[in-house]
Give the backbone structure.
Amino acid sequence: MAEALIAGLRGYPHAGRLTLRFNQRVERLVSQAGRVCGAAGVDEKTGAPFEVGAEQVVVAAGGINGGDLARVRQNWHRDWRTPPPELLNGSHRFADGKLHDATAAVGGVLTHLDNMWNYAAGVHHPRPRKPRHGLSLVPPRSALWLNWRGERIGPQPLVSGFDTRRLVSDICAQQRQYSWQLMNKRIALKELAISGAEHNPSIRDKKKIGFLRDILFGNRWLVKEMVDHCPDFVTASTLPELVEKMNALQGDRAVELAAVKDAVEQYDATIARGASLMNDEQLRRIAALRQYRGDRIRLCKFQPINDTRALPLIAVREFIISRKSLGGIKTDLQSRVIDASGQPIEGLYAVGEAAGFGGGGVHGLRALEGTSSVAAFFQAASPRLPSTAKPRFPGLRGQDEENRSLADGVRPRTDRSAIYLRIPGVHTTELYDALNNSNRITQVLVTHEGGGRSWRMRSGASRIRSAC
């Protein structure tokens, strides 16, 4: 990704103005007469101080969810009670908020720092490259999600892919803020996945045959890698043996065999009654998900847990893992950093996760990669630096650019009168509300399962389409 970005920059018409300064850590912004005019810091290899001047400074340093996780703990959202004692790092080690502090020091406003997009199924990286290095599992939907005692978390069972924030909330509400997922090898082969390019080499390297092999026959290398090397995975042939290993891993007797057996036996008995009598919310959701071909191919068909044909049993200890900042440096629609009086600070801009993907919190409490990318791409195009041309957006001709909304700033791909958004419905209710409440945009169609929602500009010249 870095190589592609640098190659793109070198192909820019004004590439001669580009200087790449590696290993130079910016620690403060330089300002004169109320205008930001440069940055200063230290060379990480030599320790020598440096200062550079610039007509415009753009802060694009990521969020606050990495580093030593101190900022994550300081800004922990009240919905999640208190930060867990064991919190894993799923962000970059440089996403530590230091440039947020530097921005605040010159008058910038930081907002909604407690709006974070963390995940519930973090495990320790088998080969850590930083303190508390974690991996974010894509939790198997056919697995049972248990609390620290081995009881099934409820009354509404935890199933991934519906409301990630609620998963975090429910686990943080427990006396001990970690959880277990219980499955068998068949479920793991079919459904276990890990977020990120490191553990998705077929996608990363564009190997179609390898990707199809893993989809059709199970991701055997990934399951073996995690079972053999991740300290949070334990396996056994029987429930009593598995519970013994779970307790040995945790170093106490917290997991109760009776609780685990009760959860497994009730779940398996419900499956045995047949589809018409499956009075279990998790199984109902699995049935609904399997109506869609893309989910059906990666989802077991009502697989019991304690199945002798699907052994060994697998238990995974999971922790909350930090990921994305949905708040940050407050900006206007041109990505100019705003001061406490609501006025832009001359010469200073913020984009991407540093600005909460837009404005310091455009998404509210929920977002995913699709909607985050929309905001980030719009921000990248929107700063009106004096030395660059203003971006043009077909389909928005004649509209007041100063009042152009975030959704309006997305370049159409094929239809010059259309603006396309990918908005996963369950995760971005705040964005839906903003579109629904807009004075300039009216909703004309609501569909689901890929149909999405559509909005039309009151002028009739443009419309917005979104795919759920």
Remarks:
- Residues 387-432, 442-468 have pLDDT under 50 and may be disordered.
- The two ends are 27 Å apart (CA to CA).
- Residues 194 and 265 are 28 Å apart (CA to CA).
- DSSP finds 14 helices and 20 strands in the chain.
